[in-house]
Design brief:
Pfam families: Amidohydro_1. The protein is α/β, with parallel strands linked by helices. Helices cover 35% and strands 26% of the residues. It has two domains: 2-55 and 349-383, Urease, subunit C, domain 1; 58-340, TIM Barrel (Alpha-Beta Barrel), CATH 3.20.20. Strands 1, 2, 3, 4, 5, 14, 15 and 16 form an eight-stranded mixed β-sheet that branches. An eight-stranded parallel β-sheet has the order 6-7-8-9-10-11-12-13, sandwiched between helices. α9 links the parallel β11 and β12. The longest helix is centred in the middle third of the chain and has 15 residues, at 212-226. It is globular and about 70 Å long.
């Protein structure tokens, strides 16, 4: 079966082809070109792109939205399977064809962030049941003060239940919580915990500090042996970043300062920032501006973080502001994240031989950009009016 998409602006890794065409056979990209070389044939299924942009599907390495679908209101929870179905449709409509659900192991400190959610989601995905619109994978986040988390994550690595691991330290004085006061305010806002409950939580964190170096060593060793990508979270100093390459870390997520981001870039770590940071023009937590990092040439990856629709709109915003060319901006959400998680041989660009995960995008009258069609492995999975 061959499918021809014609009259599209093809966004290739290094250039655009206006009024272009792309031919898919079975799951893979067979060929592409400009209008003058467009193939014909009665056996080819043809789709008119109406001058829309044809992009590789977006690859999101970090979104914790699944937690909101499980618990849309405090203490109101839904079954994980239903939550995954909702996430599947919403992410597809945002142009994401491969989602790494960022789920946390932190002994249930923050409501729905529980061992059970992580285990239930991993069991569903390992079973490979369900006709999903997109590809679903797990980004397992380890809170380093967690007593149970490191053992659970080692089990997940052994079972190949996750494909990306990240290390988080939300102790007072670390990352985005420079003082205990800031951390207390965040916990109170996020969980509605009482002062006594927060006191207990912080005391547990303090008691676990001596075990953190051993946990880092164990988890990174297991991830390296399994060939998994490893990330860190909220790096704030150059000295902190400098310890990571020897442990196999390949990505620094949301560095909070230019110093940390610059050092990560110098050491060859992919620097990942949030697309909402780009769209809003600033960090929600008052940390490093993603735009500042992109202008400095040190940001490699953009992720959804907490707002999936920002990924697509960040790409076109960067191009419209002429901060990056459109191909350069698209690489931040396709080829570069694919490279971090060792998927770039098969995914992440409109390249002959790669899997045809693609999206067709049209601008709206309001100046935003909307997904009109989504293809997964060459199959048209979503068509929006």
């Amino acid at each position: 079966m061959q499918t021809l998409i014609q009259h599209a602006t093809l966004v290739l890794p290094d250039r655009l082809i206006e009024d272009g065409w792309l031919l898919v056979e079975d799951e893979a990209i067979l060929d592409y070109g400009d209008a003058a070389t467009c193939p014909t044939g009665s056996s080819i299924h043809t789709i008119h792109a109406k001058a829309g942009f044809l992009l590789p599907g977006l690859i999101d390495l970090h979104c914790d939205g699944i937690e909101r679908f499980v618990e849309p209101r405090p203490n109101v929870q839904f079954d994980i399977q239903l939550a995954l179905q909702e996430a599947d449709y919403r992410l597809a409509a945002c142009g994401i064809t491969c989602e790494f659900h960022a789920v946390s192991l932190n002994d249930g400190e923050f409501g729905v962030r529980t061992d059970k959610l992580v285990r239930d989601l991993s069991q569903i995905l390992l079973a490979e049941r369900g006709d999903y619109l997109i590809r679903h994978k797990i980004h397992a986040r380890l809170e380093l003060s967690s007593e149970r988390g490191s053992s659970i994550i080692e089990e997940m690595i052994e079972q190949r239940a996750c494909e990306l691991v990240s290390l988080m330290d939300h102790s007072p004085g670390q990352g985005q919580y420079p003082s205990e006061k800031v951390l207390r305010e965040y916990i109170a806002f996020t969980t509605n915990s009482s002062d006594a409950e927060i006191d207990l939580m912080l005391e547990i964190k303090r008691s676990q500090l001596i075990y953190i170096p051993e946990r880092i060593e164990r988890v990174t060793c297991a991830a390296r042996k399994a060939g998994l990508a490893i990330a860190t979270h909220d790096d704030d100093t150059a000295s902190k970043v400098e310890q990571w390459p020897a442990l196999g870390v390949s990505m620094s997520e949301f560095p909070t300062t230019m110093e940390a981001a610059q050092r990560a870039h110098e050491l060859g770590l992919a620097v990942c920032m949030g697309a909402p940071n780009v769209v809003r023009g600033r960090s929600s937590g008052g940390n490093l501006s993603a735009l500042e990092g992109i202008k400095a040439g040190i940001v490699d990856v953009l992720c959804a973080d907490y707002h999936p629709l920002s990924m697509l709109n960040a790409v076109f915003s960067l191009a419209k502001q002429r901060i990056l060319t459109l191909p350069e901006a698209v690489r931040l959400v396709t080829l570069h994240p694919a490279r971090v998680v060792h998927m770039d041989q098969a995914y992440g660009s409109l390249t002959v031989g790669k899997i045809a995960d693609m999206i067709l995008v049209q601008p709206t009258q309001q100046g935003a950009y909307r997904v009109k069609r989504l293809f997964l492995g060459g199959e048209e999975k979503l068509v929006l009016a």
